[in-house]
Every structure is written in structure tokens, then in C-alpha cells.
Structure prediction request, 620 residues.
Amino acid sequence: MASRHYPAPELDVSEWIGTPHTLEELRGKVVLIETFQMLCPGCVRYGLPQAQKVHRAFPQVTVLGLHTVFEHHEVTGVDALKVFLSEFRMTFPVGIDRQDGGMLPVTMRKYGLEGTPSTLVVDREGGLALSHFGQLDDLALGAVLGQVMADGRNE
Amino acid sequence: MASRHYPAPELDVSEWIGTPHTLEELRGKVVLIETFQMLCPGCVRYGLPQAQKVHRAFPQVTVLGLHTVFEHHEVTGVDALKVFLSEFRMTFPVGIDRQDGGMLPVTMRKYGLEGTPSTLVVDREGGLALSHFGQLDDLALGAVLGQVMADGRNE
Amino acid sequence: MASRHYPAPELDVSEWIGTPHTLEELRGKVVLIETFQMLCPGCVRYGLPQAQKVHRAFPQVTVLGLHTVFEHHEVTGVDALKVFLSEFRMTFPVGIDRQDGGMLPVTMRKYGLEGTPSTLVVDREGGLALSHFGQLDDLALGAVLGQVMADGRNE
Amino acid sequence: MASRHYPAPELDVSEWIGTPHTLEELRGKVVLIETFQMLCPGCVRYGLPQAQKVHRAFPQVTVLGLHTVFEHHEVTGVDALKVFLSEFRMTFPVGIDRQDGGMLPVTMRKYGLEGTPSTLVVDREGGLALSHFGQLDDLALGAVLGQVMADGRNE
Prediction:
């Protein structure tokens, strides 16, 4: 079955904290990407805890963080981010979205994200099943994950 | 595709508050059945609110309540139940599980339920996809609903 | 020091579940009275749990429940109430506000309460330090209790 | 009335973000001091939100933050802290606890704090009414504030 979803653009990451990944290499798996900034309250309060909860509850889902910095670059560099991830006990790999001098980092622009936190779900065929900006209900996120986990399971 | 799940036993209901339903008639739909007692704290605190949330969030899921009384019969009759459902704003149909003089009402026995609240999910082919006693995380329930909504969608 | 508060009217209770009390006899103590109806969602969700929490956290505060029924009398009688209090693990004494045929029960009328849940705090001199209808923040309730506990402590 | 509490040590602050304060100057007022580190999860999740809530709910209480850094100094300097306070909408003055090369900053040592977050309440006479490490229930904090607000009110 061809995916019903548009292809998810490849991640453009300048550095990984944890194991590096590409979406191409993850074809065949369900992927959740949590895009965030370490000093964004909504990311800290609900986006990242929800991603961590998915990481724990669904071993069959690959969870990635993407640090999409578009403000306060000077105090949210890689050293600060490493401390943050360790203190807040985030255990999934986190990529740093590439900066090319534009207003927004590259991957964030390719996905047309409105801000942080944004939650992305990529299906087994690399289609973008969800792109949600802001707080996302667990019941709704669970249903999206359940559907893309079911899709292509027997194919 | 044949359901991977055991067939869900038919409901045995002595009276409906709201539109009556049978599982047989609901074949082809995803059904969530919330079994509860009106004076059970866990039912009031999380089971019923979660069922009501599913009812609101997923119009494609048929939500039913099942009043499976096994204690305090004398103060949880149909008149009390009607007041309770109205005050607590439960808007899905509720069946009263048949009493035949046994310790537990009939449908509760057929499903082998351990207590209240128990949440049941029936897939499109009438298979029992979930039978969970006690508090159930929204993320986990969402995933089950997402999977059974995906199953048989194109068949 | 004379209380800065108006005198709290005496309770008019037709029956007690647990040890009977009068405000007169409780002079010198801080008293919290949680007025409720057993099938009122706000009472079950926040009023009564908060009263129970005060009962556990502040042994020096006397906590009482008052069942102020003004609707659905037929299904919220004393037998139903006893089951409810036992199932919901309310461990403080509960009085049943006297019915005299008026729209509202007698004590509820004397206090001019708007509805349920309403939380009342009576100071050591029998003054009404708080009468609050609806949800009440823990921080705000704590501050009222702290103030009336401090008042008259050394006198 | 002489305070029943030990005198709260004076704050030793190297720099203020917002209006500077000393406890000596605040004699006669109730003061809440929230000690925190900007990358400490418990501070972000409950300590600081609770302090902000007190700041909003009780205009008669002076709320101060104290940045007691004892780890990760290199990524939690004053520039990072200013961004953090602005993003997380903390509107009370924040002092930076003086570093003198010891393991812990100076004020933190003088108070014998175990870690962050720690919540301190200073009464009108400069006595230390509360020093609590970790999560603190709103009801309990409210009661302490209510008691120290009542103390010395009429003197």
C-alpha cells in the first residue's frame, strides 16, 4: 500500500546528541520527532514529557528530538543543551537542526513549522502522518500512532 | 481479514437508558464499552470521564456504558442511575447489565471482568481488542483505538 | 480579641453519620464544613477530596460534611449517602441538613449558600471566616486556615 | 511579640535581575524566597510556578527568587538566566546567590539548604518560618503564609 501521506522531508542535522538517524534509514518504522527549544515553556511542560512517555510506552516507535532554535541562540548552544537533556532525563537521540543564517533553522523551514513544540509522526513508508504545533492530547496522539503502527504491518 | 481477536460476547442488558444497541448490529464499527458502577470512585474519577472524552473526540467510535452492579443494588437502581448520568453529563447510551441472582451480573460474568471500571474495545469484526480493569492511560487507549480503526478500513 | 467575622449560624442537622457536633460545642476550634450533595459532580471531583485532604493534613482543624440536598431527594437518602461516604472513603462526620419542606434545606438557607459544593470555615470564636461556592484553590484555602489557626492562639 | 522563629540570615546576592532587596529592608513584611537553578526540573515544574502563583494571589507577600547555582555554572550564567525568566514569565525580582569558590553559593550555605528547589518563608520580624526542600503542597504553603500574615498584624 502506498502511503496516503505526503513524504516527510529528510532531517538536516548539524550534530547529534546520541545515535544519529536519517528518515531514509528508518523507512519501515514509525517515527515520532519532537521539535523543541530548551528554553521554551510549552516544550518543557508538555511536548518533551509526552515524547519521553511515548519513548517508554511504545518500544516499536523510534522517538527523536530535534532542537529547532530560532531565538536565544547564544544561551542554547550544544553544551547547554547537553546539560538540559541530562537534567530533564530525556533518553532519546536529539539532533540539532542546521542553522544556515535564515530566520528559522533548515529542517524547521522544510516542514513549515509554526513554532515549538511541534510534534511530527512519520509512517512506515516515510509519509508525514502528523504535524501538530502546540499541546497535543495523549488520546489523539495515541490514535495517530495506533493507526500508523497498524498500517503496513502485514505488508 | 479475519479478526485477530476472540469474539466479544453479546451484551445482556435488561434495560437501556438511551438508544438500545447490540454488538451484532454494530458489526463493522469500532465500539468502546465502559463498564461501571455509579458509586465506584474509580469509575467516576477516570473511567467514565475517559469514555466521555472518547465519545467527544472520536465520532467514528460507538461509545456505550454498561452498569455492572455487583454491590449496593438497593441504592443504585435505574432511577438513581438516570439522575447520576444526567448530573455527570454522560451523553452515550447506557445499558443495565442483567441480574440473574448470581454474584455478578450476566455480561460481566461472560467477559470475566475483575471489577469496575473495566474498559472494553470491540473491533469491526466483533473481536475483543481490549479488556482492561482499572485506570488506563489515554496514550495507551488511543493506540488501541487507532489500531482497530485502521484495521479493516479498506476491506 | 473579638472575632472580626459575623457569627456562623448553628447547624440544623436531622441525622449524623459519625459523631454528632454543634458549632457551640466546637467553640475554640477551627472548623471546616464542606456542604455537598452526593450526586453533584463538583462535590465529588474537588469539594469533598479537598475536605478529606484538610482532614488528613491538619489534625487541629475539625472537618465536617453537611449533606445539603435540594434536588433528587428520592435517590440521595441516608442509605445511599452511607454507601457513598464509605465507597469514597470520607472519614469525617457528616450531618444531614434538615428538610422542612422549603426549596432549600434549613442550614443551607441560614447560610445563604448559592449551591454545592460550598466550603465554610468557622474561626475559634464561632465567626464565619469563609463561605465559598464552587472550586477553591488549595493555596487560598490554606491561607484562610492558617490565619484562623493563628488567631486567638495565644489568647 | 518576638518572633518564635530563628532569624533568617541576610541574602548575599552578587547581582539582581529586577529591583534589589534585603531582608533587613523588608522587615514588617512577609517574604517568600524561592531558591532554584534554571536547569533543575523540579524548580521548573513546581517550585517556580508555585512562587509565581503566590506572587499573583497574595499581593501582601513579597516574592523573591534566588538563583543558587551549584552545578553547570558555565551554561546558567546571568544572560541565560535572563532569557529563562523572560520565557517562563517569572515577574518577581531574582537575585544571584554569590559564588565564593565553595561547593555551594554563599546564601545557600548560610541557610543550610539541601538542594533546589527550596522554599523559604520569612515572617514580619525576620524569622525563618519555613525552609522546605522539594515539592510543597499548596495547602501546606498556604497555611504557613496565612499564619505569618496573621502574626503581628495588629502589633
Remarks:
- The longest strand of chain C covers residues 30-36.
- Chains C and A do not touch (no CB pair under 8 Å).
